[in-house]
Specification:
By secondary structure, this protein is α/β, with parallel strands linked by helices. The chain has five helices and 13 strands. Helix 1 links the parallel strand 1 and strand 2.
Amino acid sequence: MIIAAAQTIPSKHNLGRNLDDHYRFVNMAADHGAQLIIFPEMSLTGYEREAARDLSLSPNDQRLAPLRLLAKKRNIIILAGAPILLESGLHIGMFILKPDHTEMIYTKQYLHEGEENYFVPGLLTEVFIDLENERMSPAICADITHPEHPARAASNNSRLYLASIFYTPSGIDQGISDLGSYAKILKMNVLMSNFGGASYSLASGGKSAFWQNNGEMVGGFEGAGEGILIVERNDMQWRSTVYTTF
């Protein structure tokens, strides 16, 4: 199994440029054999609150057609974030695009303080991704601050917890500590993707990383900047490589 976390720097209010970045990172990951790639929180638009409704996407949004085709062409599952407008309201969400053209949407279940002024929380329903007969569970940012969220994933037999976040330099070390603890206590592997540069006038802490299910960090970014983290399992052993872009 080979999986990847993209560490990207979003362009403000520029879906086209952000999509171009997604194509570039997906191709880079697929060139290294990745079967799945996860992007940061609201990666397609950048983290936005006030402008989120205007920037929002919808289920089966035609603007994502090239990204869906790329998932099929490169045989890779793509987890890309955006504000998503559903009948239930405006959500911080994640598109899960599969090579077979099926699409799932995960919505952030626990909002960060202030987000409730613009978004509604997702329902406490489970979304699972299957890869090589293993179950995986997605999470978005503040979800990981609620231990019951990863605990539910573990209780549903997920072997990999996929965290899409936007953490600043002041918060990322706590996020890393939390995710490492979940990996150890819940016996789940954990892959985390964070922005590598500013969004919403806030710096990003970067440090996208992977932990194996004993709590050990296998590898990750040292800080901010763009690139991908490739994680590969052979004979139950994990190894990782960071590829930076300039």
